[in-house]
Design goal:
Chain lengths: 448, 448
């Protein structure tokens, strides 16, 4: 983040506070922390994995399960290396890079603003850069028993290429006809020279991609459809209009094969950044894989008998980036009317890692409260907490986004009722014990 | 599979028939098929990904969400390379390997039965083997901008190591006390010399692992608890007692640090094979990571003030192997009373990729039938099929394990009823259109 961006941060809190909350409460922390971490790799803790899984489940529900024109796929991370020759990644997927001859550090040539002064050239405060070279971002490995060139393989740099290589197999087995799509969620890897902005730019990340195959005459219609659908999805997550925008690519930004492209951007503390791309990829990918594999990937229109290579509209969303956007959007340091402050994470209830916390007012009430927690846990992710004063226990749930707290008090045993407190308005409802399941179901299962 | 095993196959069908069904109907097929495949890597198609996701969701539900003493985790596939020095993988995770000097093929020294005759030494029918060497099974890659040794990293060979390195962070953030567990589902990679038996032994695979941290005095109790729990899980999947067995490791099979270990084995067409391992790993892992990181991973008993390094009971199940076992267990070529045959996949309804198929008796009934499919699709994975005779459409659903078919016929418009056909018994119920949702929900949501 440049200083100019930091100054303009639209949020009245520091990014470091959110990063610290994520580590302290077990959302996200550095991979291999006890070994000093590994740059660009992150682990999702107990709350982070639930948030991410809920987000992935919602995407799968909306994009795959609720539609009759989209099929799912789960392909291997390592695939045949010819895939990456056909896709152009072996030749072109690189960043421009320079080294400093003095301090031996490496920088992206297009990000030299972030280089800082060279520690080995005191007094000049400038680096001694080499010429710009290209640096391929794919992670390489070796399959089989030797490290010779024949066995080189790559960790996929994007999940979509397998969708193209599996296109015919999926189309034939699912008996779909154009227009239809293939969707996949999975890990991808890029050897970023300079990972940064928490999980935003990391070396291992998760994508949710849809490739929608269409007749060439329908490109504009389907591009508009999917751009609209994907905006709707992000609005459904709770992102408000002031923090979400569409940035259409100018003609000179487009890849040579693309007819149109737009980024869906979210307003992070470090500026407007892409969380999803919607691209008209044309027939580039299927044509390239046809050329490299010798396999025909064209289709025949059953009515007109026209034979054509389908065009592709792609929607590609970063799961880690969207999860980060959810944390940023939900994070709030709130001053209450009584002067107290609380940290709040306003997550959509369907995405919240913990759905309900069960809190006995005293440890003496542990037994019936635990019984309630046990019942709720079969259906909802339920947290049980009996220690500390009730206000503090509410605050602990507020800062991890738990939408409902159920308090079991000294009256509950006699009147058969508990108090349900809602996170955002802090409003309290007194409801019957038997009614808790239904009360929560009505409020939590709206989306899924 | 050796000839001896094949002869003993307990199944009245050939493994090839199941492999062929998987490709033909889009469960599982070779990765990068159009490039000739890549040995040991598989893609899950539209039906396969649903089966696998359902299986993972059930494991997560039973092991993490329904328990208050297990926390989830989702760590990076690439972690700090010191992890694999501490775990012993860099030094010891290898297979014995020989090369044939004549035909240049490579074999596992412990599997020379499968070597076949050497094509380059006709007349002798024997190979000319080199001495046995050790071959490390971890896949290596390079992080950062150079391929020098400092940047070497590995694709994880098992998901559990991050559970150990993240142990303190997860314990502190979740405020759990011993005994408690950390669970994770994710990809792991092993450079198998000889991938085989369809997806059973592949180079990229998915594990669901639980590491349960306990006081040393409770090893036997918790080992028994988890062995029991995990058997119960496999029985819940529908595996019958004749195809599931426990094989306790003999003392001389145990790793030097292990006190007890047992495999849960399933009867595949290629013999009894491990689908899950339950292991008492002692304090080996936490001690090694303490030694290599210099970080204290011991805990204090709050009551006795005793300080100790927890012992670990591990349950580790192969998701791909269990998915394959589900396909094997469910597959049946059935002769019906009328002499007709049908292929059947008896999958547990909660695991079936498609929950319900909506079939109009005639294309003239497409409109109301599609309306019903649209409604059902919001809650259940729903397939709509209007082409071909109804018997053939039933068969197509039977062979992919769809538990219910709903037929909309010429009466439905007037009496407001449809026919629901159950897969296994082929029994038919006539029920009202408004009742279909509830009918299916009662029969499909038993488990989850």
């Amino acid at each position: 983040m440049s200083n100019a961006d930091a100054a303009k941060s639209p949020y009245p809190w520091r990014m470091d506070d959110l990063v610290s909350l994520c580590a302290r409460r077990g959302f996200i922390f550095p991979s291999s922390e006890i070994y000093g971490g590994i740059n660009g790799f992150w682990d999702y803790g107990p709350l982070g994995v639930e948030l991410k899984n809920n987000l992935k489940a919602l995407w799968w529900q909306r994009v795959v399960r609720e539609r009759d024109d989209v099929e799912g796929l789960d392909s291997s991370i390592i695939c045949h290396p010819r895939t990456w020759e056909a896709s152009g990644h072996v030749e072109h997927f690189s960043d421009p890079m320079v080294d400093c001859r003095a301090c031996k550090k490496r920088f992206r040539a297009d990000q030299l603003d972030d280089a800082g002064p060279c520690p080995a050239r005191e007094g000049t405060s400038e680096h001694d850069f080499t010429e710009v070279r290209r640096f391929n971002l794919m992670l390489k490995t070796f399959i089989g028993a030797s490290e010779d060139a024949a066995a080189v393989a790559y960790l996929r740099a994007e999940t979509c290429q397998s969708i193209f290589t599996d296109f015919r197999r999926v189309k034939d087995t699912s008996r779909q006809k154009i227009p239809f799509g293939i969707a996949q969620i999975g890990k991808a890897f890029r050897n970023e020279i300079n990972p940064r902005n928490f999980t935003f730019r990391s070396r291992e990340f998760e994508q949710a991609e849809l490739e929608f195959f269409i007749h060439p005459s329908e490109r504009e219609k389907w591009f508009a459809h999917w751009l609209d659908e994907r905006q709707r999805f992000h609005r459904e997550l709770g992102f408000t209009a002031d923090r979400l925008r569409i940035r259409a690519h100018a003609p000179d930004e487009l890849a040579h094969y693309a007819k149109a492209a737009a980024d869906i951007e979210f307003l992070f503390p470090f500026g407007w950044q892409e969380i999803e791309g919607v691209h008209d990829r044309g027939d580039w990918d299927l044509r390239r894989h046809t050329e490299y594999s010798g396999k025909d990937l064209s289709v025949t229109d059953e009515e007109t008998k026209e034979r054509f290579t389908p065009m592709v509209i792609e929607t590609s969303v970063g799961i880690d980036r969207t999860a980060l956007a959810l944390l940023v959007h939900g994070y709030e340091e709130q001053t209450l009317p009584d002067g107290e402050t609380r940290t709040l994470l306003r997550l959509h209830p369907a995405l919240a890692p913990i759905k309900v916390a069960v809190l006995p007012l005293s440890k003496k009430l542990a037994e019936p409260a635990q019984k309630l927690a046990l019942e709720l846990r079969r259906r909802f992710t339920t947290f049980y907490d009996e220690s500390g004063n009730i206000g503090r226990r509410y605050r602990r749930q507020d800062e991890v986004g738990t939408p409902f707290c159920v308090t079991y008090d000294f009256e509950s045993g006699t009147d058969g009722k508990v108090t349900v407190r809602e996170r955002d308005a802090m409003a309290q409802d007194r409801i019957s014990l038997e009614g808790v399941q239904a009360y929560l179901r009505d409020r939590l299962e709206v989306v899924l």
